[in-house]
Amino acid sequence: MNVPDIKKYLRSEVMPTPFCKGCGHGILMHAVLIAIDELGMEFDNMLFVSGIGCAAWIPSPHFAADTLHTTHGRPIPFATGAKMFNPELDVVVISGDGDLVSIGGNHLIHAARRNIDITVIMANNKVYGMTGGQLASTTPHACITSTTPEGNPEREFDTCRLALGCGAGCVARYSVAEPVKLRRAIRNALRYKGFSYVEALTICPTQFGRMNKMPTPFQMIEQLREVCVPGTREQVMAGDVPEGKVYVGEFS
Ligand SMILES: Cc1ncc(C[n+]2csc(CCOP(=O)(O)OP(=O)(O)O)c2C)c(N)n1
Ligand code: SF4
Ligand SMILES: [Mg+2]
After folding, report:
1. To 5 degrees, how large is the angle CA 169–CA 170–CA 175?
2. d(CA 48, CA 217)
3. Closest Cα to atom 1, ligand 1: which residue?
4. Is residue 131 a part of any domain in this protein?
5. Is the shortest distance between the CB of 52 and ligand 1 below 6 Å?
6. Which candidate, 110, 155, 162, places its Cα nearest to that of 137?
7. Quick check: 10 pLDDT over 70?
8. What is the pLDDT of residues 126-152, one digit of tens each?
9. What atom in ligand 2 is closest to the CA of residue 54?
10. Is the pLDDT of residue 162 over 80?
11. b/e string for 187-207 if b means 16 or more Cβ within 10 A?
């Protein structure tokens, strides 16, 4: 297979990457850039918007493109404004679960409801990675975080169910353990006219893995393979996910 050279999309001055060794955000970054390359999108006509957190570093400073590194939880409003001002621009938000779903969840639901023509790619590593692995709304029940040493007493958000419930027409979820499927979902989201949403399940060995008996990236990838099961839109909407599993697929 011919793998495109993605170096042309990256700023040479940020190499090597600031991510920890084994961080899943690098796999997601690669999937996004390959998807863009496969679609032949004009990088110069794209704007990447992120909030605050390790995932927000995927586009900025890595991408040699126009990037907006905004305030925590607020990339979607910035992206909406940019798209309103210049409808020809391809606007893509890439940020974390803490950023887009926990602190910024309100903006996600209204962008989906309004069918704003942007693509949102949410890197779900299940914690606030950058600030020390605190509990997020995406942390699975019973998992250990730095703020829930006895285990998370709450249940986590199914963010694809949320996006579908808000009327999003293009919704998908895959993990970085299945990069080819993840890339295909990102491609379809980038092509979609209207609001599109991809949840990328990813790994944070430094914070989440260490606290949940998966200190190595390999163990975390194995665990993603175990928990992800193919699901349909109807199953996601019904919320009848089997205990300890997560539905993956293109749900729309
Ligand atoms: C208004 C505000 N609140 C809190 C913070 C501190 N903060 C910075 S990054 C971050 C967590 C980001 O988590 P996530 O979006 O999941 O990204 P990750 O680091 O896990 O990839 C927090 C709470 C901040 N910068 N601004
Ligand atoms: S703290 Fe976690 S999310 Fe942040 S760079 Fe390190 S491994 Fe990645
Ligand atoms: Mg996170």
Report:
1. 150
2. 27
3. 72
4. yes
5. yes
6. 155
7. yes
8. 999 999 999 999 999 999 999 999 999
9. 4
10. yes
11. bbbbebeebbbbbbbbbbbbb
The enclosing domain of 97 has a CATH number of 3.40.50.970
Task: Tell the residue nearest (CA) to atom 6 of ligand 2.
Answer: 20
- Tell me, yes or no, whether 4 lies in a domain: no
CA–CA separation, 209 vs 133, rounded Å?
10
For 224-237, how does the pLDDT look when each residue is reduced to its tens digit (9 = 90+)?
A: 999 999 999 999 99
Which of 3 and 160 is assigned the larger pLDDT? 160
- Give the residue numbers spanning the domain of 220: 22-250
Residues with CB under 5 A from ligand 3 (ion): 96-98, 125, 129
52-107 pLDDT per residue, tens:
999 999 999 999 999 999 999 999 999 999 999 999 999 999 999 999 999 999 99
Residue type at 54? C
Whether 116 shows a pLDDT value over 90: the answer reads: yes
Taking the CA of 207 as reference, the closest ligand is 2
Give the dihedral sign, CA 102/103/106/110.
negative
CA dist., res. 233 & res. 93, Å (int):
23
pLDDT greater at residue 2 or residue 135:
135
Q: Is the CB of 93 under 6 A from ligand 1?
A: no
Q: Does residue 199's CB lie within 6 angstroms of at least one atom of ligand 1?
A: no
> Residue 220 in contact with residue 213, Cβ under 8 Å?
no
Asked whether residue 15 is domain-assigned, the answer is no
User: How many domains are contained in the chain?
Assistant: 1
**Binding site membership of 36 for ligand 1 (Cβ less than 6 Å):** no
12 occurs within a structural domain? no
Structure tokens at 234: 């109807």
Dist. CA 50 → ligand 1 center (Å)? 11
